[in-house]
Design brief:
With 255 residues, the protein is α/β, with parallel strands linked by helices. Helix content is 31%, strand content 12%. It has a six-stranded mixed sheet with strand order 1-5-4-7-3-8, sandwiched between helices. The protein has a two-stranded antiparallel sheet with strand order 2-6. The structure holds zinc ion.
Length: 255
């Protein structure tokens, strides 16, 4: 049964609008490796017909999946796993130097079914904003750059939160980042694209063409959702702008 928890234990007394967070504890969690504190947030969609179905799945020990929070289409925020614990939402993949993303992140699922739903509900996005504001306020080690999509860290396997997720609007609120100052770089050059993608945070396990095409796809899903076809000057300029303004790791610039 959901338990109404106005003034949840984490909510700062300074907050103007207290977050309403409902509780639906899931058994699917463990300890964060070395008891690290989360440095990032991973956003997902559930790809299930209803939030009840998603909660049931994330609460079934056999499924071995969970997330810290689920936000339904009406904006109701449900917490399944304590933030101090390691929820099982990210799976295999990496972002920058982080390989065990579950240990280092907070996972938020959005109730959304990509083959039916088009835009995300305003109430759902408003609750997401409020939850992210609250998380950033409580956890200064998480910065807007570190709020990413599941697809960003698992380009071979995942496409959520998908092409309709409004990353630009999130960035306008200071809750993510957006490439500004994109130069029209006329040269299309895969090594330069890959180098800048690595600086921004994307990772390819084996440096294969297939992996890089997946990275190109998920990068476009987030930053250039209308872009199709071969690597283009706008892809180049956008990735270079991201790497310049939002470098994840400093790597040798000799490539
Ligand atoms: Zn996901």
């Amino acid at each position: 049964m959901d338990l109404l928890a106005i003034g949840f234990q984490y909510v700062s007394a300074l907050m103007v609008d207290a977050l309403k967070i409902f509780q639906s504890p899931s058994p699917n969690f463990g300890n964060r490796r070395d008891y690290v504190t989360p440095k990032m947030v991973v956003l997902h969609y559930t790809a299930m017909k209803s939030s009840d179905d998603a909660i049931a799945r994330m609460s079934d020990p056999k499924s071995e999946v969970s997330a810290h929070y689920l936000i339904d289409k009406f904006g109701k925020i449900i917490q399944l796993v304590d933030e101090q614990k390691r929820a099982w939402h990210a799976g295999r993949g990496c972002w920058g130097e982080i390989n065990d993303v579950n240990s280092h992140s907070i996972g938020i699922e959005l109730d959304y079914y990509p083959s039916i739903d088009e835009s995300f509900d305003k109430r759902q996005l408003s609750s997401l904003n409020n939850l992210l504001f609250d998380i950033l306020k409580r956890r200064p080690e998480i910065i807007p750059k570190s709020i990413i999509g599941h697809s960003d860290m698992a380009p071979e396997r995942k496409r959520d939160p998908g092409k309709n997720f409004p990353w630009k609007k999130l960035s306008d609120k200071g809750l993510s980042i957006w490439p500004e100052n994109v130069l029209d770089n006329g040269d299309v050059d895969w090594p330069i694209f890959k180098h800048n993608a690595n600086i921004f945070g994307y990772r390819s396990a084996n440096d294969t063409i297939e992996e890089w095409l997946n990275i190109l796809n998920v990068f476009r899903l987030r930053f250039l959702p209308e872009q199709k076809g071969k690597l283009s000057p706008i892809d180049m300029g956008t990735m270079i702008a991201l790497a310049k303004d939002w470098p994840h790791v400093k790597i040798n610039n000799s490539q």
